């Protein structure tokens, strides 16, 4: 997907570059906490998260969330200058040697650039449902790989008409790995918690959504049959490939739908199933 920053106005003042010489520098506190649960805890009313890699950091810059700071290796400063020029002048950009950067962050799979963001207020659920036409409802989605994959699916196959709702058991979409696997789209696709669950599904039905529970089984309808009906507003209910959807969730749906797969294979990965279903049911 083309970068939103290629045509950015580069006439702005240079970003606030701050050289960091030591691993123990207090300015790097957020980055030393990357492997700790505390980064996603509430600090002074703001929940923080990390974006890693050029593309994901770029998507953070264009998202609704605040960029708290950027941390990069010194050799990445010049190549990233056009991107950094889009930051507000008050946002610090910390620059360090390869040794200090690697010691702070451990494994080097983030292309020498990291950023810490602060999550804005959650999206209002009524507003989310008012503008969405394809909603993915995740039930007990605790795998950050699956979570990130679903957000990438929704961004690609539902676009601005897509959204995600999570039951109370599902993991946080803004954990580090979820954001990375989503290629930064977890920062753009609107999401909210649906609580209580499954009673809260009635809110979707009241707003014109047809609730489709994805689950294998002989009595489930074939996905292609449902796709032919061209419903304007659909909500897809997805469970884990291990336990799937429980009985109460299946009962709350308008109908149960299956993706035909080869005999002897019990199920599909959550993100794979989501992508197939969204493609078949695209508006």
Predict the CATH topology of the largest domain.
Alpha/beta knot
The stretches of 5 or more residues where confidence is low (pLDDT under 50) are 1-12
Record the strand order, biggest sheet: 9-8-7-12-10-13-11
* Percentage of residues in strands: 15-25%
Your description of this structure?
- By secondary structure, this protein is of the alpha/beta class.
- It has two domains: 16-118, Ribosomal protein L30/S12 (60s Ribosomal Protein L30, Chain: A); 125-280, Alpha/beta knot.
- 28% of the residues lie in helices and 22% in strands.
- It has eleven helices and 13 strands.
- Strands 9-8-7-12-10-13-11 form a seven-stranded parallel β-sheet, sandwiched between helices.
- Helix 6 (144-157) links the parallel strand 7 and strand 8 (162-166).
- Helix 6 (144-157) packs parallel to helix 11 (270-280).
- The longest helix has 14 residues, at 144-157.
- The radius of gyration is 21 Å and the shape is elongated.
- 40% of the residues are buried.
- The model is unreliable at 1-12 (pLDDT under 50).
């Amino acid at each position: 997907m083309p970068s939103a920053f290629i045509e950015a106005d580069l006439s702005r003042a240079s970003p606030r570059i701050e050289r960091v010489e030591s691993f123990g520098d207090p300015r790097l506190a957020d980055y030393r906490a990357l492997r700790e649960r505390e980064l996603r805890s509430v600090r002074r009313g703001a929940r923080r998260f990390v974006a890693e890699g050029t593309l994901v950091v770029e998507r953070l810059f264009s998202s609704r969330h605040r960029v708290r700071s950027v941390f990069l290796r010194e050799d990445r400063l010049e190549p990233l200058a056009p991107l950094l020029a889009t930051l507000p002048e008050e946002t610090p950009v910390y620059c360090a040697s390869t040794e200090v950067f690697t010691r702070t962050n451990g494994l080097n799979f983030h292309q020498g650039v990291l950023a810490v963001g602060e999550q804005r207020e959650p999206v209002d659920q009524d507003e989310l449902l008012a503008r969405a036409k394809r909603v993915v409802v995740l039930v007990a989605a605790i795998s950050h790989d699956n979570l990130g994959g679903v957000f990438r699916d929704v961004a690609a196959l539902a676009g601005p008409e897509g959204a995600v709702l999570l039951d109370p058991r599902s993991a946080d979409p803004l954990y580090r790995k979820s954001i990375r696997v989503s290629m930064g789209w977890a920062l753009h696709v609107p999401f909210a918690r649906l609580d209580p669950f499954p009673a809260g599904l009635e809110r979707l039905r009241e707003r014109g959504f047809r609730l489709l529970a994805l689950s294998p089984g002989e009595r489930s309808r074939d996905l292609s049959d449902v796709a032919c009906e061209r419903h304007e507003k659909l909500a897809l209910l997805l469970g884990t490939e291990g336990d799937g959807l429980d009985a109460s969730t299946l009962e709350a749906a308008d109908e149960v739908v299956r993706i035909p797969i080869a005999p002897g294979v019990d199920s599909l990965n959550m993100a794979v199933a989501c992508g197939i279903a969204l493609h078949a049911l695209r508006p």
